Amino acid sequence: MATNYELRHAAHPNDVKNYDTKKIREHFLIEKLFENDNVNMVYSLYDRVIAGGAVPASGKLTLETIDPLKANYFLERREIGFINVGGAGKITVDGTVYELDYKEALYVGRGNKEITFESNDKQKPAYFYFNSAPAHVNFPTKKITKNEAEIVNLGTPETCNARTINKLIVNSVVQTCQIQMGMTELKTGSVWNTMPSHTHDRRMEVYLYFEVPENQAICHFMGEPQETRHVWMKNYQAIISPNWSIHSGAGTAAYTFIWGMGGENLDYGDMDVVQPGDLK
Ligand SMILES: O=C(O)C(=O)C[C@H](O)C(=O)CO
Ligand SMILES: [Zn+2]
User: Fold this and answer.
1) Given a cut of 80, is residue 1 above it in pLDDT?
2) I need a surface site. Which of 70, 101, 186, 256 has the fewest CB within 10 A?
3) In the chain, what are the domain boundaries?
4) Which residue's CA lies nearest to atom 4 of ligand 1?
């Protein structure tokens, strides 16, 4: 059982213009978050958001602090949001047990000392995906199911972008300092997410793609709107989107993804939209 972390520095958009495929992937793609009996995470210096995955396969796992935090425990100065993208499991927060089924979320506020993870069935371990950001206030812990989410249907089959946005950890549902998280489900036959695309200089964003059918892939688009680049991604891979970057994708089939943000505001609708005809 191990906690593994990687630190990712922030890059200037003028530098990123010159990145080749390998370098773009090294800086922004997170290839392996989910590994049996490990807690893997990437600490991004974009808004100090951490994206991680915990897979309690053979026993209990603990969310340990990591050295760059210089904290006595992970949530000493942070908050965290979880969404379960695997089998049913439990997250215990300072002795209180929260059962999390597939696609259910949990927000845990600053100041909670011991967070542990368990799966209900070892054959089908839970995959607890998380995003964490610095926090200045201790808000109460809250479980959020899809029934409690704010749901928005966007797009059309004609433009291949019909999708349901489940806003799980947003300020209309739960109080947070910086973190917002939700899940967007593409309708069968639709492949485009976040089209028209957008940027929001106020917040960074991370996407985790899942429910990508076998032998299918996602072509994720990033970069400044007039200087875009693509990154081919597989099931259960995540990608960091800097504040200056679009974050949009097309799959070779329908899929689901989790979006998570941290930064200057909690205003989901604060987006600078870029129409398809204006992208380069
Ligand atoms: O499909 C979409 O559109 C999204 O899910 C967009 C994300 O929620 C987002 O980028 C929020 O800023
Ligand atoms: Zn966005």
Assistant:
1) no
2) 70
3) 15-278
4) 194
